[in-house]
Amino acid sequence: MRIVVLAGGIGGARFLRGLKRAAPDADITVIGNTGDDIHLFGLKVCPDLDTVMYTLGGGINEEQGWGRADETFHLKEELAAYGVGPEWFGLGDRDFATHIVRTQMLGAGYPLSAVTEALCDRWKPGVRLIPMSDDRVETHVAVTLPDSGSTPDSGERRAIHFQEYWVRLRASVPAEAIVPVGAEQAKPAPGVLEAIAAADVVLFPPSNPVVSIGTILAVPGIREAIAEAGVPVVGLSPIVGDAPVRGMADKVLAAVGVESSAAAVAEHYGSGLLDGWLVDTVDAGSAERVESAGIRCRAVPLMMTDLDATAQMAREALALAQEVRGA
Ligand code: GDP
Ligand code: CA
Predict the structure, then answer these.
(1) Which chain regions cross the lipid bilayer (predicted)?
(2) What is the pLDDT of residues 60-104, one digit of tens each?
(3) Which residues, 6 or more positions from 253, have their beta carbon under 8 angstroms from its beta carbon?
(4) Percent of the chain beyond pLDDT 70?
(5) pTM higher than 0.85 for the full model?
């Protein structure tokens, strides 16, 4: 079975671990979000690709969900001693090596997809990990900075890098718009459209619908390829009981005019894209609303508390795919 998964960071990576357990013989291609990518200290950092790679490759900091296990921060401290920031983005010493290798290879002319493959030679994630595009796409968030009067730019409307919004501001001010800068001109990376065309099923893990999966779908050709592939497309809700399980997805959903509920996210993707949608058992009451939008819906436990629970979620997603295929 060939499975294509569109993935962000933590939600995508943890789900993939369960999927590998549930379908050990499947050929899994992961199309990773690169809208979160940022240049820091002259290095190209790809947070979502790395979260998938480290999680599946056994190098992740389990508690945190991102970054390396057994990490130290000497380099960051040394940079801070020189007054070189940003201090709000936590890059550890082990993690830095990944960004150095990536930046070096990009500088030598390799596209990001080839670089990612090379990094995966070390991590052996057990899936094929492809960035959504080799072209630069950077998610920006339009905000009005709080009028504290303390900084010259307070009270001003500005577009800031997604990481600055998410990590520095912790989404503490409303996101007025989300713009995947560069997406319109971006082309899917080599292998992306081919994997979709050859897939038996496409899964949307419980990743952020706006800044993870939404960004991938903003690359021209990807949404169309999925809609036209003629295979079941099944998603799992990242919203449980009207709130994100982790993080601040409600803030970016509000920016695109979508309420923070499992049913609203399904409607946001729409029946033109989604065939099936899993909501958590606490949201069983919303299944009818999803079904009336033309999307087959089941309520099952959706908390990725451990590998067994996550594998069971993956089995449910594959079962729903089978069900819509037979319909
Ligand atoms: P990010 O790039 O690291 O933010 O990760 P993703 O976009 O892949 O996933 C983030 C989403 O995962 C958040 O909106 C969370 O609500 C969701 N999420 C995290 N853990 C769980 C879980 O155990 N169950 C469900 N259903 N969603 C989860
Ligand atoms: Ca992300």
Answers:
(1) none
(2) 999 999 999 999 999 999 999 999 999 999 899 999 999 999 999
(3) 209, 210, 239, 259, 260, 264, 265, 268
(4) 98
(5) yes
Query: Is 158 within 8 Å of 143 (Cβ atoms)?
Result: yes
Tens-digit pLDDT profile for residues 205-262: 999 999 999 999 999 999 999 999 999 999 999 999 999 999 999 999 999 999 999 9
pLDDT value, residue 326:
84
Amino acid at 171: A
Residue type at 174? P
The DSSP code for 191 is T
Beta carbons of 95 and 71 less than 8 angstroms apart: yes
Ligand 1 centroid distance, CA of 293 (Å): 24
Find out whether 249 and 208 touch, Cβ atoms under 8 Å: yes
237, containing H or E segment? none
Q: Give the closest residue to 37 by CA, choosing from 50, 24, 53.
A: 50
Ligand 1 atom with the shortest distance to the CA of 244: 16
Single-letter code of the amino acid located at 122: R
Would you tell me how many other CB atoms lie within 10 Å of the CB of residue 232?
24
Give the position of tokens 């905000």: 143
* Structural domain spans, the chain: 2-133+184-326, 138-180
CA distance to 41, 77, 94, 100, 203, per residue, from 115 (Å): 19, 28, 18, 11, 25
Q: Within 6 Å (CB) of ligand 1, which residues are found?
A: 7-12, 48, 51, 206-208, 212, 236-238, 240, 244-247, 249, 302-304
Distance 238 CA to ligand 2 centre (A): 13
Assigned fold of 2-133+184-326: Rossmann fold (3.40.50)
Rounded CA gap, 163 and 148, in Å? Answer: 21
